[in-house]
Amino acid sequence: MKSRQSGITLIGFVIMLAIVGFFAFMAMKLVPSYIEYMGVVKALNQMSTEGGNEDIEQARRHLAFKMSFQYVDDSTIKPKDVTIQRLGNQANLRVAYDKVVPFIYNIAFLLHFEKSVPLKSAVGQ
Fold first, then answer.
1. Sign of the alpha-carbon torsion through 13, 19, 25, 28
2. DSSP secondary structure, 44-97, as one string
3. Is 121 helix (H, G, I), strand (E, B) or coil?
4. What is the per-residue pLDDT across 24-74, written as a single tens digit (0 to 9) for each?
5. What one-character DSSP code corresponds to residue 12?
6. What's the pLDDT score for residue 54?
7. Which InterPro entries does this chain map to (predicted)?
8. Kind of pairing, strands 107-119 and 90-104?
């Protein structure tokens, strides 16, 4: 009786390895940006639980201070990306920014992050 071998061939294994490698490389490029965003969210949540954010400049300073502990790069979020919006009687601290992550040659990922949290006391601007 003849036995028939089954399984993956070397060429099939190399192709599968190339596909897995491509997605692993993509993840290595994108995951740090999402981890940084989680640090921004954590800093924003800390800002929402404490009061004393009377004006936009003070809120920006406090947020930058809190983000420095979360390993958020200073060049990621510009002062213009942090705003305070007033909706009725509620003031919201909003951070919206874009991040460009170079990938391969002239291909890059454009990531848009946006988060808004209510503040205890603030003046909308």
1. negative
2. HHHHHHS----SHHHHHHHHHHHHHTTT--TTTS-GGGEEEEEETTEEEEEEEE
3. coil
4. 999 999 999 999 999 999 998 988 887 666 677 888 888 888 888 888 887
5. H
6. 61
7. DUF4845
8. antiparallel
